[in-house]
Write a structure and sequence with these properties.
Strand content: 35-45%
CATH architecture of the largest domain: Sandwich
Structural class: mainly beta
Number of helices: 4
CATH class of the largest domain: Mainly Beta
Number of domains: 3
CATH topology of the largest domain: Jelly Rolls
Distance between the termini: 22 Å
Radius of gyration: 29 Å
């Protein structure tokens, strides 16, 4: 089901609403100070004092996010100076808006509130497509390994449509049933990183590195995988081209442990039979009470590389040990898992249950719908129907909900248009037949 083809920023949406009320001026400052904004642009067409009392808001550049009412409006030789109460000085890169022009209209905050109210009004009926590759399966044979069917449901989903598995098996790795201990990473300066040597059998492109990791305490940094070249059996410190993965939020790792899929995007090219090293990196400082652990086999079950540590200066091999990992080739093939073989469960916490398990370490993709949300920045793209938002926002403002009455002789036409538009059903999207409502 395609997403709505809509692309309008929060700034442009506010402009649409304010222009309906002839209450919008926008420009780029030529300079300013702690009490002024100057401009040599089109604003010069307005007579002096025209903008007395109007609200000036900075929406981009230096001094972003301020609103002040003009206490003076002068013109000298093509330069307009607007005087305001003290603010952070603006610069020549500052974009500004002006509202409440001529004693009518609304403030920027009121326009923003009206747009957010319109977005909230669509709530559960309007959503955008999303997907999340948040975990990889555990399917080693018990009792030595772990066979897991329930996985934490990632946040951000309003509906869940489908579950896919990567349609290709691992090229190399060490299975979870070999695990007999775990090694800390990031708990002390002696282990700022840990690493595992590996080889692939064939030249080619590789996209996924899946590591079995748990956490101790509540670490909050990001985790990243780097693929290093070899130097006499240890990482050289040089990352191969495209050999740094996307980051993974370390706070979402389980205390119980699970396979974390690290994606190399774009994929990395590796030469078959050549020694490489997976280096696990944390973004924040070491902590003796908040760190991660990588599942370890101290019987050297892999054979095409070894485990090791890094103390911020030197890479050192750990004799006789390997870490649990899987490396997957690049692939665009995702195979849907039958609806009868997965389900969403609410059992104290949210889980996705997968009943039929593919190869261990295989990345799993969840497909679903994300709830639309209030914008977080001026440049946020709104996945909404602009006409509906404009109509709802105008009706919201002109009904007095903003706490300010707009002079009726200016607002009649805009309000009638808004009411006519709102007679239609609010925008919605059909929910797929197999979709499940998610409550995370």
């Amino acid at each position: 089901m395609p997403s709505p083809i809509i692309s309008i920023t929060f700034t442009n949406m506010r402009e649409r609403v304010a222009r309906r009320l002839d209450d919008h001026i926008e420009g780029t400052a030529s300079g300013g100070s702690a009490t002024t904004l100057t401009d040599t642009g089109d604003i010069d067409r307005l007579p002096a004092d025209y903008l007395l009392g109007a609200e000036i808001s900075t929406i981009a550049g230096t001094g972003l996010g301020q609103s002040r009412n003009a206490t003076d409006h002068t013109k000298t030789g093509g330069t307009v100076t607007l005087t305001v109460p003290t603010w952070t000085a603006v610069g020549s890169d500052t974009t500004y808006e002006i509202h409440k022009i001529g004693g009518r209209g609304f403030s920027k905050a009121q326009y923003d509130d009206s747009i957010n109210a319109a977005i909230d009004s669509m709530g559960r009926a309007y959503f955008t497509d999303t997907d999340n590759i948040y975990f990889a399966v555990e399917s080693s044979t018990p009792p030595s390994g772990i066979k897991r069917h329930e996985y934490p449901m990632p946040t951000g989903f309003l509906y869940l449509y489908g579950v896919d598995k990567l349609g290709i098996g691992p090229s190399t790795g060490l299975e979870l049933f070999n695990m007999d201990t775990r090694r800390a990473m990031g708990d002390a300066t002696a282990r700022t990183r840990i690493w595992q040597g590996f080889q692939v059998g064939l030249d080619g492109w590789y996209e996924w590195v899946c590591l079995y990791i748990d956490k101790v305490g509540s670490p909050t940094g990001n985790l990243t995988v780097q693929i290093h070249t070899d130097s006499a059996g240890i990482p050289s410190g040089t990352t191969v081209t495209d050999g740094t993965s996307d980051t993974f939020d370390g706070a979402t790792v389980d205390a119980r442990g699970r396979f974390i899929p690290f994606r190399l995007d774009p994929p990395v090219f590796l030469v078959g039979g050549t020694q490489y090293h997976i280096v696990l990196v944390r973004s924040d400082a070491v902590s003796a009470s908040a760190y991660w652990r990588w599942a370890e086999d101290d019987d050297n079950g892999y054979g095409l590389g070894t485990a090791g540590t890094y103390d911020a200066t030197t890479y050192t091999a750990v004799s006789g040990s390997d870490f649990i990992f899987h490396v997957f080739p690049a692939s665009t093939e995702w195979t849907p898992i039958s609806r009868s073989n997965w389900e969403y469960r609410r059992v104290g916490a949210d889980f996705i249950a997968i009943k039929v398990l593919p190869n261990e370490g295989t990345p799993i993709r969840l497909r679903g719908g994300a709830a639309i949300a209030e914008p977080t920045a001026e440049t946020t793209t709104l996945a909404v129907e602009p006409d509906y938002v404009e109509a709802f926002a105008l009706d919201w403002l002109l009904s007095g909900r903003a706490g300010m009455v707009y002079p009726d002789n200016y607002a009649t036409a805009a309000r009638e248009w808004a009411r006519h538009r709102l007679e239609r059903p609010r925008p919605s999207r059909p929910i797929p037949a197999n979709a499940i409502r998610v409550y995370t």
